[in-house]
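User: Show me a protein chain along with its predicted structure.
Assistant: Here is one chain, sequence first, then structure tokens.
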Amino acid sequence: MSLRALDVTDVHYVESLSPGGGRALLPPRAWYAASDAARLSLNGRWRFRLAAAADADDDAFAAPGYDTGGWDEVRVPGHWVLQGDGAFGGPIYTNHLYPFPVDPPRVPTENPTGDHLRVFDLPGDWPPAGDGEAVLRFDGVESCARVWLNGEELGHFKGSRLAHEFAVGPLLRARGNVLAVRVHQWSAGSYLEDQDQWWLPGIFRDVTLLHRPEGCVADFFVHAGYDHRTGEGTLRVDSEVPGRVMVAELGIDIATGDAVSLPVEPWTAETPRLYDGVLATAGERVPLRIGFRTVAVEDGLLRVNGRPLLFRGVNRHEFHPTNGRALDLETMRRDVVLMKRHHINAVRTSHYPPHPAFLDLCDELGLWVVDECDLETHGFVEQEWRDNPVDDDRWTPALLDRATRMVERDKNHPSVVVWSLGNECGTGRGLTAMAAAIRARDTSRPLHYEGDPDCRDTDLYSRMYASHAEVERIGRRLDGGTLKRRQLPFILCEYAHAMGNGPGGLADYQRLFDTYERCQGGFVWEWIDHALAHPAYGYAYGGDFGEELHDGNFVCDGLVFADRTPSPGLIEYKKAIEPVRIEGDAIEGTARITNRYDFADLRGLAFTWSYEVDGEPVATGTLAVPALDPGEWVEVKLPEPPAGAAGTAETRWTIRAVLADGTAWGPPGHVMAWAQLPVSGARLTSPATGARPVRSGALITLGPAVFDARSGALRSVGEVAVAGPRLDVWRAPTDNDNGASWQPDPRYGPLWRELGLHRMQHRLDAVELLDDALVVRTRVAPAAREVGFATAYRWTSDGTRLRLTVSVVPEGDWKVPLPRLGIRLGLPGAASGDGGPVPVRWFGGGPGEAYPDTATASAIGLWHSDVDALQTPYVRPQENGARADVRWAEVGGLRVEGEPPFWFTARRWTTEQLDAAGHLTDLAPGDTVWLNLDHRQQGIGSQSCGPGPLPQYQLHADEAEFTFTFAQLPR
């Protein structure tokens, strides 16, 4: 067996429009995790060398006996740029810009090329030569691979997130098999893979050797429909190789190609009923997991088993902070379990088919899946879509190959209910060809593609980042467009951009979905922050690896952080989409329970109540709620409140729906829904008045407080040193405040900075000692502007407590909302000493952060934490950590009460330091705890890609008055 001689410049396949080729390359087929045929994983440590160009080295390395003693090693699955401590180059992040000149199909000569080599022996029980065939399978290689086995070239392929197989039986040896794979970072295929993610070359999914016995299973298609009118399922398995299909639980034993109908329990994402079966041919037995369900667009709605769906979904890139897109099964399961625990019912596999094992988990645990083709040409928008491959017939075979490989691999998953042609590719004939090819193969699922505004090729009307107002117009069928489009169901394939602090407005979107049946939900962008582990920064984003062209931290836009810790955004989303609505009238003593599931009843839930006085439960119990069917509701009577529990305190009922028993994804007691029903409101703080201010030299005393006589600035309350307080309107802009440059609406962060709100100047106008008060009058304004705030601080005391009333009157023409409105003060001694935790205790919203349009998940209670734990570790530091509806808070020896309830933030660095930081490692805790006590906050929105805060969440510069009362805590 001899190595085919090639000139070192024979790399035409890299820039070829062909999706792949070679005598051993096999057509795509259905994926299955296991069978009784032998298989050998080739994952592990591979020998590796990196060249700077595609033709830098010859292919002699593929021959047996080649000396790789001087080579490095890499882990497969893996990306070479994430290994070798930077010796193998670095990752590149761009949102849509190609990181190479746009000259399709040409790519740069500087094309990092990784030669991978693995020597392996066959297991002792591997079938002998001549007993059937063998197939070498690659589940994912970015972006172009050329493959040899034992010196014989098998072929090459493109399509990074797609499976490719080669027939290799005659080439195998019992010992010393040499598998060589040359991987090019850039290829013609890169023009089709311009997804918003890191560019990460390598063999990043499994490599497997499969024995194929005589008469083995080849391709097969499981058709398992469900008739909701009769309750019957119909099973037919079409198989390229004839055999039998057996489902013992259902008593099925039929030939492939035959159909049988019988009563079954249907599969849904809420009730993922799977039947275990077997496809048996003469040479192989393949386990089947069969879910009976029927998907259709009927009467303008997307239905499964006759019922309309409501997607409560997320977009999901595959990502791990150290391994990139090389995910193991445990990580994939963790993703699905987290989604289920937070009520997420759907995943759009943005923007490529995921690892096939992920779909097995979606089948098992229950998620609706929009399976998306490995296709995006977004970078061509920079030249107004000129030369876009999807409208160039020369590229159509590559597009069809990608569509076919997706459908053939994933067609047997009941979780896959929609095929998506790709993402952000403009429009063109290639997409039409893909749609026709998919429909010719599979008529059981509708087609999706957001970039088809006339819905010429699609069965769903899909949009990205439509505003709340536009969603409502679409729901009311006032949106216009073609007649076909107006008759189709509407989904938001991307909305609520979860970048940094946010997204805001989730509950407002959900109310629209619940109101208008045409609006069948959507998919939040996105599941996880793509922050890569970094030795200096902790977590890194675009530009941190020396990329000249990058899109910064736009890659960090997930509902979970890179380590898969839920963000406040995920907690908010869980609350907005919870499957049980709990409402009530505490005065009447009733609660109304509504089942918001699409398919499941409430049989698996238990309901509890607690009666809380000033945030602490004083009595608990259970509520009897029937197993309501979807859409049903019931009104239940609450018990009598505990005798004498209220008095002058603030009281409320908290009602929870929890898992009665454990499920495959959640333990008993896991909270599925909750609501709070106020009984008696917050009591007002008695006025702290009566003491007289007294001046003595450079100081003024008033009750327990000491002030600077010249400036009127507070210096201490009792033994607690205080810096400030004074009016504060600035916050370190969030990613959503800063907005996206392409947005037509104002981006508040840049406007605030342009106006100078980050550098406000405070002018002292008067310090007035009255009989019962100290009044300090100031004007707070930015340099170079005529706008400002006339601000008065009125201090009173009853001898032990100190009361501050702040009056704010805007001056000038304020044309933009404010970031915040409140006071900031420092507690210089609170964080000094051994650097240990600074305890915080508060009565109000919690336990996590909340802002005006992200406060649905904030529950009123008595909460405990410490200052450091109040911080939310967004990858790019920004405003975070506010607690809403706070009645009182205790920190650093000081108690603060507010009227009305206020927003409370505490951190060991100033807002200016937070604003200046690029990474969390830039923030060094100081010896002062800085408190923001805010009367109001600006909303968050999702303008980093979506709409800004709704009008009701915007903070306009209006007259305001608010009060805080301070007291030293007992030692």
